């Protein structure tokens, strides 16, 4: 079974109501993908799919139509200059594959190699303080100078500052989007900026197939992959609506190191607790759940921590890949 056949099968299976990545991998544990393509009877061996067959929602002809739709989707996606990677492809990011939960298919515009190698994620409020914006740009600049790819979400505010810092350093940056890649860029004010990222050796990535317009839940869901794609996560400043907190929790669950801008080290700030965007950071730093970031030495310490963690992620990724190969072959 080649890469395109596996991609086609995954896309078609996920067209079945109630079938997502976990169901697909569980099915592959039971039946090798090649046999699923060869004999429709094997579809009965998955309880979710068997239920759809018994309900009359799926039969042999409908399944053949789904496979044809999957092939057409692949062709149309590529016509937009979008690359499709399944979780077994060589260019699929090792960091994503190291997760307990990862997307089976990702879509990439630009340099797919930008998704590999040492990287650091940036999150934070869309309304940072002047200090927060400047420090996001400066930290991203330094990380990029040190050879790390900067991963963020292209939103205004903190994300834009991080991408900008990486580009100013002549480095590479990746933007993870909450819509499919043929759609107009969100936010619209960053349309030209997105192209600049691609033109400078970076990439846009999405887990959404053609036709997925930007939605609030899609923007929230992509937070999981911002930390998952990176070796560690930098939180510049937090908001009060819980969005940054939600993204941060993904990093903790994934075992990613977390660093936070430490406003208390700024000599111009008398009372850091009067800065709304800094309160969350101070709490996590105080509890030692995040490393304080301010000067270049603190950034280098965080880099060393990420390097050590990356070694563990890569081992886990290789184990997942070997297990997947057993399923497939």
TrEMBL record:
InterPro entries: DprA, DrpA_SLOG. Gene3D superfamilies: 3.40.50.450. SUPFAM superfamilies: MCP/YpsA-like. Coiled coil: none annotated. One of its GO terms (biological process) is DNA-mediated transformation. Residues 84-299 form the Smf/DprA SLOG domain. Belongs to the DprA/Smf family. This is DNA processing enzyme DprA. It comes from Ligilactobacillus araffinosus DSM 20653.
């Amino acid at each position: 079974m080649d890469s395109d056949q596996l991609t086609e099968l995954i896309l078609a299976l996920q067209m079945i109501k109630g079938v997502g990545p976990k169901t697909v991998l569980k099915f592959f544990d039971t039946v090798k993908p090649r046999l699923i393509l060869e004999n429709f009877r094997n579809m009965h061996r998955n309880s979710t799919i068997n239920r759809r067959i018994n309900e009359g929602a799926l039969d042999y002809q409908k399944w053949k139509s789904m496979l044809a739709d999957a092939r057409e989707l692949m062709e149309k996606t590529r016509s937009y200059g979008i690359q499709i990677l399944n979780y077994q492809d060589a260019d699929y990011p090792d960091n994503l594959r190291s997760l307990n939960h990862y997307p089976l298919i990702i879509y990439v515009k630009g340099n797919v190699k930008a998704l590999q190698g040492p990287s650091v994620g940036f999150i934070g409020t869309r309304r940072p303080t002047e200090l927060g914006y400047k420090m996001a740009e400066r930290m991203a600049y330094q990380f990029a100078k040190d050879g790390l790819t900067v991963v963020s979400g292209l939103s205004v505010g903190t994300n834009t500052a991080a991408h900008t810092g990486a580009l100013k350093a002549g480095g590479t940056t990746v933007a993870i989007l909450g819509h499919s890649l043929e759609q107009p860029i969100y936010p619209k004010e960053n349309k030209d900026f997105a192209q600049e990222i691609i033109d400078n050796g970076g990439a846009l990535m999405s887990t959404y197939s053609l036709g997925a317009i930007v939605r609030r839940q899609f923007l929230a869901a992509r937070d999981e992959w911002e930390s998952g794609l990176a070796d560690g996560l930098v939180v510049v400043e937090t908001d009060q609506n819980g969005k940054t907190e939600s993204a941060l929790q993904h990093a903790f669950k994934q075992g990613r190191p977390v660093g936070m801008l430490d406003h208390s080290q700024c000599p111009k700030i008398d009372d850091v607790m009067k800065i709304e965007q800094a309160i969350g950071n101070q709490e996590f730093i105080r509890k030692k759940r995040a490393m304080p970031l301010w000067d270049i030495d603190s950034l280098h310490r965080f880099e060393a921590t990420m390097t050590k963690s990356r070694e563990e992620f890569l081992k886990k990724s290789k184990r997942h890949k070997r297990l997947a190969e057993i399923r497939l072959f």
